[in-house]
Amino acid sequence: MENPELAVSSCSTHDDGSLRSYKRHSSVCQEGLLEDQLRRKLKFFFMNPCEKFWARGRKPWKLGIQLLKIAMVTVQLVIFGLTNQMVVAFKEENTVAFKHLFLKGYMDRMDDTYAVYTQTDVYDQIFFAINQYLQLPNISVGNHAYEKRGAEETALAVCQQFYKRGTICPGNDTFDIDPEIVTDCLYIEPMMSSDNTTVGKHNLNFTLDFHRLVAVQLMFNLKAINLQTVRHHELPDCYDFTLTIVFDNKAHSGRIKISLDNNIAIRECKDWHVSGSIQKNTHYMMIFDAFVVLICLASLILCTRSVVKGIWLQREFVSFFLYYYKKEVSFSDQMEFVNGWYILIVISDVLTIVGSTLKMEIQAKSLTSYDVCSILLGTSTMLVWLGVIRYLGFFQKYNVRISWDLRAVASHPNTASSITQCDEVLLLRCYDLPGLLFLWMDCTGTIPCEVSLSEHGFRMPFFIDQWR
Amino acid sequence: MENPELAVSSCSTHDDGSLRSYKRHSSVCQEGLLEDQLRRKLKFFFMNPCEKFWARGRKPWKLGIQLLKIAMVTVQLVIFGLTNQMVVAFKEENTVAFKHLFLKGYMDRMDDTYAVYTQTDVYDQIFFAINQYLQLPNISVGNHAYEKRGAEETALAVCQQFYKRGTICPGNDTFDIDPEIVTDCLYIEPMMSSDNTTVGKHNLNFTLDFHRLVAVQLMFNLKAINLQTVRHHELPDCYDFTLTIVFDNKAHSGRIKISLDNNIAIRECKDWHVSGSIQKNTHYMMIFDAFVVLICLASLILCTRSVVKGIWLQREFVSFFLYYYKKEVSFSDQMEFVNGWYILIVISDVLTIVGSTLKMEIQAKSLTSYDVCSILLGTSTMLVWLGVIRYLGFFQKYNVRISWDLRAVASHPNTASSITQCDEVLLLRCYDLPGLLFLWMDCTGTIPCEVSLSEHGFRMPFFIDQWR
Amino acid sequence: MENPELAVSSCSTHDDGSLRSYKRHSSVCQEGLLEDQLRRKLKFFFMNPCEKFWARGRKPWKLGIQLLKIAMVTVQLVIFGLTNQMVVAFKEENTVAFKHLFLKGYMDRMDDTYAVYTQTDVYDQIFFAINQYLQLPNISVGNHAYEKRGAEETALAVCQQFYKRGTICPGNDTFDIDPEIVTDCLYIEPMMSSDNTTVGKHNLNFTLDFHRLVAVQLMFNLKAINLQTVRHHELPDCYDFTLTIVFDNKAHSGRIKISLDNNIAIRECKDWHVSGSIQKNTHYMMIFDAFVVLICLASLILCTRSVVKGIWLQREFVSFFLYYYKKEVSFSDQMEFVNGWYILIVISDVLTIVGSTLKMEIQAKSLTSYDVCSILLGTSTMLVWLGVIRYLGFFQKYNVRISWDLRAVASHPNTASSITQCDEVLLLRCYDLPGLLFLWMDCTGTIPCEVSLSEHGFRMPFFIDQWR
Amino acid sequence: MENPELAVSSCSTHDDGSLRSYKRHSSVCQEGLLEDQLRRKLKFFFMNPCEKFWARGRKPWKLGIQLLKIAMVTVQLVIFGLTNQMVVAFKEENTVAFKHLFLKGYMDRMDDTYAVYTQTDVYDQIFFAINQYLQLPNISVGNHAYEKRGAEETALAVCQQFYKRGTICPGNDTFDIDPEIVTDCLYIEPMMSSDNTTVGKHNLNFTLDFHRLVAVQLMFNLKAINLQTVRHHELPDCYDFTLTIVFDNKAHSGRIKISLDNNIAIRECKDWHVSGSIQKNTHYMMIFDAFVVLICLASLILCTRSVVKGIWLQREFVSFFLYYYKKEVSFSDQMEFVNGWYILIVISDVLTIVGSTLKMEIQAKSLTSYDVCSILLGTSTMLVWLGVIRYLGFFQKYNVRISWDLRAVASHPNTASSITQCDEVLLLRCYDLPGLLFLWMDCTGTIPCEVSLSEHGFRMPFFIDQWR
């Protein structure tokens, strides 16, 4: 009787009726006192925070912690989203820049039709890419540099794959082929000398046998530093780009598709020095993250306690029912005692704690796993919102308004562009569709009270009504 | 009893029933005469113009004024929309022309992908823009001229922003940076001499350190006169364009986005002379605007009077109720006496008066604030339509038809292109959505009469029915 | 009683009930015999062809004529559509060809953004168009030729419109303008000499004052013969193209929009000679058209007779009603006797007769008004289909299927491209929408029988039921 | 009584009711025993496999075979789809490559606007295509070769079609034409000599009279081998391309549309040699196909037997009914005994057997009719899925889920691109629409049980209920 928990009893007008029916019932069977005690325990257990406060004056601590958490977690996600957006934008813009630098005649939005059809065009494209690579420091407007292995810079590899043996005579409908594929590579090192001699057919021993050719691959590594974070008082990251330009002749259809693939790795910079106030700002942010972790730990402990108490009450009720009525309580009725939303909040708290720790590591530049962190924080924020929506579910009409506000928050133009936010918006939209449907049905009065509750609260109050 | 005002009593079939219930009621309580007097006062107060005419022969002056006002305000808005459209089109076409003049290789509909990727392209773009600026009078087909400060023409400013100190070596993963940004500007004055020497790297001391570069900005001012209004018998305006071409290298991603921003100010021309009939036409238009202001003043006074009378009747009713029944009248019942639509009409009238005054000033070329005027006139016209829709609300079925006609008016092709009209159409569409929903619910018969009234009339007639 | 006409009595199960009510009625009032006679007359009048055949063995001649007419009119429209399509395609392709020939750098689908922004571009465009015009016979791949006035060929007119007086100094915010527009033209005649000297600034005295310039217009006439009809065994038409290239500088915004307007007139060729079988084919087609005219005349006469008889019966009924019951027959009840669908068929027949006569004239090459003919034939075919749908309306369930088949016919890919067919399909779609809505309501059973009839048959059988 | 077959009796709760009604019925009429026997026979006949197992322990062999068949047929279709996709992609890519090789200035996605407008452009295009053809072996990146007739290579044919006689003077509105079309061809053989002399107006006697010209056609044959199948361990096919470039001047509108038509024939290669493991893989695949044929034969025999038994039972029932009740059994009731789904399965089995045989022939490279095979296998797989859906129809709620899974299978990205799969997905979508509508109606409870059955099972159980 001391620790009853959160419950839903929004159809309070039904209480009088069920009370009366209960009175009639109790006059028939005389288990009386113990049943009445358990009944009141259950009633309190299934109350919402508001009713608990009115009934016994219990202050809604848990509700307060959830509200504080939701505010902090959302702020944290928006801040991380803004940082992550810079990372995503830097990746995308570099890929676009590489396409314009290394693909001859490339224009925006023609990736799917970018192909060459004649032998001279293939040589032109290859030599164009090689020359652009050799002159990169004089051409590029970004901070691109060759990767260094020790003292010398890594070379560009021009690899051609061809069938080992092949005599193909389509004119006679005959061919003699060995489908084994041989790869032959040529390495071209960035010339340190300042002479502007371009590479071409005349000074590079490179010929292609188009009848046997399967693919040509140009592979090289570039490095860059994402400086723009400096202006947002964060430390820059170092990027490794592994670029692969593929001339795909697998089909031998007369069309060689050209694609540029940019494999990006983010690493901490080795040796850096920045003047000014970046350090301090990072410290403040870390303190905020640590506070989020503490709040989540508190919420985690309180919700776990509620779940445990629910299970205890369930056992007590099952044994009472078996003893007095000689009846098993059905599994679905037993599940009424386990509040699915508490479990959701627990999961969300765990995700937030892990995500916040990761975020602190990223800010300290000891880790660069932006994607994992954004998935963790994004998922946890979504769950915490869903959890609070349920927690506030005793004012059913507020539900939809909250979910709309949520969407407004989530569709913030800057944050929505980063990956996590997109996911979240999608998930919210999924949630909204049944929500709106539900609202519509509620308005037209076609659904009874019970379904309405179960829709929002994941529960069938059929069994509860019997006991009120 | 002499001045009862507009009301809604569309469910007239309920009257008989409530009358009977009233008779039974009056037999029980003997307050009799005074109550009956107040009851009739209230009934008359909540009548609509049509019923008032049938009941006591009161001619619907206010309705007439509203109908006249709606016609005149709409005509006024359409006329202003046509003028404003020329202003908007002139602004947009100039911006497009500047993009084609100052951005090398610019084509329509490529604003979002317009960028350069190599160092030589950056220099080319900058020198192209400078040369085009220097030769503008010989190139442009419009009436573009340099801005003059006193006798000499203003210069073009080429400003580069870069990090104060920066040694960035992505190859070694090291950097040493001072995030403070330094701006360095170069001013190029339009050469008055007729020699066609172009500016380039050879004769201009201008180099960029791309590793440290954050942005390059080209800023210059141009002036123009919107002559086409002359042909519509209106006086031309003078325009100041503050152009900024930004080469954005914030991200250092190898992609420098180029954007042209055109900041437009409209000013009265200082010294002008036009032959012919422009002046007369402006006079006629001003007389029309003045008449609109007079009509709106009349409507404003009549509606304010009605609101005041409503508040007096409310006080009388509250004191009567408290004296005889010893009961407080609830706040929501008290609000029944304040007709929200009168307040809407009052707001709309104030906006129209201010807007029309502004329009007269614009026509007299003493002001050029087209945007503010279009917002004022557009909003007021929308409100006046909403108000009249309500005013005519006693024929509920006409509501939707009117709102459809409204939309037809608002979507007039010429006027819809100007900003205000767009706003209006959007707002009307917002209004239409609940309207259509409401119509649908009305047809299916799922909503009772009271809700229907409150939806349209902002009122709950629950309390009224008791008294009829 | 001898000539009862087409009627609708689809609710035949109601007959027994109304018969019984009639019997009770006749026992009360003793007008007896005359009323009974009129009643049977009316009943027969409102029968459908099928019921008339069962009742008195009257063969449905009119139904047969309608069915024959619908088949012939549709065949006629499809044949005319195929001819008309060639005309429309020739017009469109010529316009596209002229744009490519006379507009420098024109590409497909850029009409709305085709503009120039510099003074040299304006001169280039003008001289390009002039040179292309002068060399047209050597350039064009079509049968284009200059128009001849007597012996010599018509000249190209280069007209510039400018403000009469204008001193515009945007730099000082001053202008002095006379808004009167002066037009100044220059005529360039096609050179018959074979020298390929191009026209340009050097040998043509043509300068533009861009500050005052309002528009430049290049106007010239070309002629062509649509030869492809020869291959479809039809006689070719001669085409006059009046081309106007407008350089629009009205706004003085720095952007001169260029548009090419092609005004097309179709005329009979003066003097032609074609070898082979074209003449015979035209004769057969004319015989078919004449037969359509005959059928439509028959249908016209029969339907007019029915309408006249309906009006006679109406008068008889009104006078009977006035005499025996002393009651006026309401206007809506009187309108029951005028079958709206007969009137529709009459209109359709008149249109077909006029359209077919026009078609014969076009085939004989004494007229070239393709557009008027297509509107006449298209509208009449649509009406005849609607009329027959109604005529067959006694099997209500067939209605929708017929309209679907109709749409399948109308959306025939070849014919749908010509103007008329498009109109028809649009109109059919308009008809279909209520049709489908009606079907849906019919299925769900929400509409009573009477409304269903009136929807399809344009009549309220409320009054008829009383009399059956 | 020994061989009753599959039936639907999903409304099992109705059984008790109908049993009771039957008892009352049997007390009235005394045909008793024989009727009871037939009744039980019928009841067993209309049972589903599950009920048969519970009733008499009959194991659902047929159901097992169908489930095995559906798995194997789907796997087979997916494998064939992947092979077929390579064929389709090779065809499409070759066509794209030819357009880029032989059409001057061709760019992707401009097929509908690709046209020339001047005489020089027409000559340029023709000579460009001829030169590209002559130099093809040095230009093409694919395995393209000239077709050989004996020792020498086939020539490119340049054919121009023109009116036999034509004097067209649009300037005078006169023409004298003979619509007979003459075709004049010029043959250009690939030069074996290595000299790179290009063909042009100077060395080729080729002129066009544009006034009379109807069309120019360039026709030539090329051959290629689809090598990429080698990498998927399948044998390559040889392809014959018959290319036709058409310059269409039929309309004489000044616009000559250019289109390239590629007619593709797949043939077995004559003489080939491939090193490695291709042969083995083909053998395994053939064994799988043979097994599919066996399974389908078994299913075919079992279903045919069931259909035959249904017809026997129908005859027995008809004669019993005629003898005892002196009543004819209506045709629709008789059709109850013929299970439409069995016939569907039989058709599907026949198609699978033919398709699998064809597939084996294709794999053995003795046939190349990919299209026919894909239509056969695709249709049969669709039918087998529909059949099994029906077979599992006794769990009605599973229907929709199955059809969704089906769609997931069918919309597999790789296979969906081949022609057959597209058809199938379309058909499935057609099936799904009523399915979803039905599901929705089922949920809302607006349709009675009988309609539900007939919708899914193609039967009206009205008659059956009488007998239960």
From TrEMBL, chains A, B, C, D:
Q: Which InterPro entries match?
A: MCLN_ECD, MCOLN3_ELD, Mucolipin
Asked if Transferase is a keyword of the record, the answer is no
Give residue ranges for domain Mucolipin extracytosolic. Answer: 87-270
**Where exactly are the transmembrane stretches of this chain?**
287-308, 340-358, 370-393
Region annotation Disordered: where it falls in the sequence: 1-20
The keyword NAD is assigned to this record: no
Q: GO CC annotations?
A: lysosomal membrane; plasma membrane
Keywords, alphabetical: Membrane, Transmembrane, Transmembrane helix
What GO molecular function annotation could you give as one example from this UniProt entry? NAADP-sensitive calcium-release channel activity
UniProt xrefs under PANTHER family: MUCOLIPIN, MUCOLIPIN-3
Question: What is the protein name for this chain?
Answer: Mucolipin-3 isoform A
Naturally occurring in which organism (per UniProt) = Patagioenas fasciata monilis
Q: What is the lineage of its organism?
A: Eukaryota, Metazoa, Chordata, Craniata, Vertebrata
